[in-house]
Amino acid sequence: MKKPIKRAAAVTSGAIAIILSIAAIGVWGQTKAEQPKTVRLYVFDLGKLTNNNPAQYRFQKDELAVTDLAVAGYLIVHPRGTLIWDTGVVPDSQVGSGARGANRAGKRTLKDQLAEIGYAPKDINFLGLSHYHFDHTGNANEFQDSTWLVRQEERDAMFAEKQPPGVSVLTQYNLLKDSKTVILDKDEYDVFGDGTVILKAAVGHTPGHQVLMVKLAKFGPVILAGDLYHYREERELRDRTPTFEFNSEQTIASREKIEAYAKKIGAQLWIEHDLTHTESLKKSPEYYE
Fold it and tell me: Which residues are CB-contacts of 23 (< 8 A; sequence separation ≥ 6)?
């Protein structure tokens, strides 16, 4: 009787390619993101707010070129890690659901836009919110496993027994209460330690409102201004603050401070709610670098 012949499993170059392709695909089907050599800034379209009452910003309709407001989110990809900045107005679970307010969302979820460039929420190292208002925290709970960068006054207000009136939705960020957290107690916080991604205090709109400076090697520095302003017209009329400010005097002082900072470093200041400007920006999967 002939002995059975033992055959070694032959792995062809084609099979190796298939294996590597499978390894590069995550659970949700996204291609694994490449590690960049310089800082990248991705912009996500997360919807629009229709505003028929500019009086709450102390403007008349005819004083504003555009009254509706953009909603955007941003991903900063650094050679040392990732930071998500502001997370939209509608939780991804409600996008396309017909739920009340879901029509304010963009056409695609934040997670879908992240997956397209190779990321899932679990891959994001840091979460930064300009402030706690509902149109910036829509998907904050998705990043409960990220390290949250927040000012003490902001966190205290978010989890106070009496919630801030009208503009805070606890269920959008309640899971952050148990997240790993870095409390920011100085004017500036250098996220990656090399001066390219800096959180800067700009209080007034909320107790711990902040802005984010991203220094891009080719494009130059950009300041993502949160709700320091809502309309470009406010930059000329800086003493006009929304009727729902936490502290209008602080906001005016913060506006002057950030304008001086932008001028000093030669940065563009992006008003996140400026619909015309936001629509003109490159959207993910394209990026600024």
Answer: 32
Domain map (residue ranges) of the chain: 35-280
If one counts every other C-beta atom within 10 angstroms of the C-beta of residue 106, the result is: 22
| Consecutive H or E run containing 256 | helix 248-265
Residue 218 to residue 289: CA distance in whole angstroms: 6
Report whether 160 contacts 132 (CB < 8 A).
no
Q: How many CA atoms lie within 13 A of 31 on its CB side?
A: 7
| Burial grade of 197 (CB within 10 A; 0-12, 13-18, 19 or more) | buried
**Helix (H) / strand (E) containing 51:** none
Query: How would you class 244 by CB atoms within 10 Å of its CB: exposed for 0-12, middle for 13-18, buried for 19 or more?
Result: middle
Superfamily of domain 35-280 in the CATH hierarchy = Ribonuclease Z/Hydroxyacylglutathione hydrolase-like (3.60.15.10)
Residue 150's φ and ψ, nearest 5 degrees, are -150, 150
Q: Angle 122-101-126 (CA atoms, 0-180°, nearest 5)?
A: 20
Tens of pLDDT, residues 169-198: 999 999 999 999 999 999 999 999 999 999
Span 83-124, pLDDT tens digits:
999 999 999 999 989 888 999 999 999 999 999 999 999 999
Note the pTM of the prediction, 2 decimals.
0.88
Residue ranges of E strands in the chain: 40-49, 69-78, 81-85, 126-128, 147-151, 181-184, 188-190, 197-201, 210-216, 220-224, 268-270
